[in-house]
Amino acid sequence: MISVLNSVSQLSTENALSSTQASLQNSLLQLSTGLKINSGADDPAGLSIAAGLGANIAALTQSSQNASNGVGVLQTADGALSQVTSLLNQAVTIATEASNGQLTTAQATAANTEFQSILSEITQIGSTTNFNGTSVFSATPITVFTSDGTSGGTTTTSTTTGTLSSTTLALNSTALTTATGAASALTAITAAINTVSATRGAIGASVNQLTADSGVENTEITNLTSAQNNVQNADIGSVVSKMTQYNVLEQTGMAALSQDNSAEQNVLKLLQ
Question: Does the global pTM surpass 0.90?
Fold first, then answer.
């Protein structure tokens, strides 16, 4: 039957051509963005998974930075305490000398002046050492929060450095003006060295923990990024292959549509 009102073959060809062009446009979009999921319509489940992985990656990335900052604070405190230890060792030498009892009054006074200068320097270190504008030595714990973006994947690491001064080290009332006072000061200095060493030990343990946490977080970031790439990134080789296929189909579709139109034009010849 010859008909000019409805051409089923032409409609089929147009539908196939439209589908091919839509697929071709989608391939071009994937190539331009590098993503195979550019909207929720492309893959609703995949989009949800990729978004969730992205949130995990963002939380872990910031957590790694938090850990690095925490290590920086603690290392600053440890460096300051290292200086305090050196000063206390100098004080041990001076106090030991003054405890001998064979110093003249002037020599004992000079030794005590040097000792008091050391105590003042320790107090100054405690009050001026800071990280990012915040005092390092405080009764408030140095707290580092890390998370993988889930409610069960959070960790808080707290380290208390405590305030640092000659008073907190129980050295403020010591003096080397007499042999007896120097011997008493020597005992207090030794105790202060032990206190500083214990604090440095706690700081070192926290630094090791934060360093390990940062390493784990960076490994998780790598693995999650790989998983996210598998879900949302386009396989460029496959997309290019499909685009070539769609280009050929588009050309053959256009040729078929043109041929179908030519066939209908032949109907006019029956009227001549």
Answer: no
Tell me what pLDDT residue 245 has: 75
pLDDT in tens, 188-246: 999 999 999 999 999 999 999 999 999 999 999 999 999 988 888 777 777 777 767 76
Dist CA 174 CA 186 (whole Å): 9
161 in Cβ contact with 139 (< 8 Å): no
Nearest to 253 by CA among 7, 3, 10, 6: 10
CA distances (Å), origin 56, targets 108, 154, 155, 203, 223: 64, 12, 15, 29, 11
CB of 48 closer than 8 Å to CB of 267? no
Using 70 as the pLDDT threshold, list the residues of the chain that sit under it.
1-14, 16-18, 20, 22-24, 243, 246, 248-250, 253, 255-272
**Percentage of the residues of the chain whose pLDDT score is greater than 90:** 60
Instruction: Encode the chain in three state secondary structure.
Output: CCCCCCCHHHHHHHHHHHHHHHHHHHHHHHHHHCECCCCCCCCHHHHHHHHHHHHHHHHHHHHHHHHHHHHHHHHHHHHHHHHHHHHHHHHHHHHHHHCCCCCCHHHHHHHHHHHHHHHHHHHHHHHHCEECCEECCCCCCEEEEEECCCCCCEEEEEECCCCCCCCCCCCCCCCCCCHHHHHHHHHHHHHHHHHHHHHHHHHHHHHHHHHHHHHHHHHHHHHHHHHHHHHHECCHHHHHHHHHHHHHHHHHHHHHHHHHHHHHHHHHHHHC
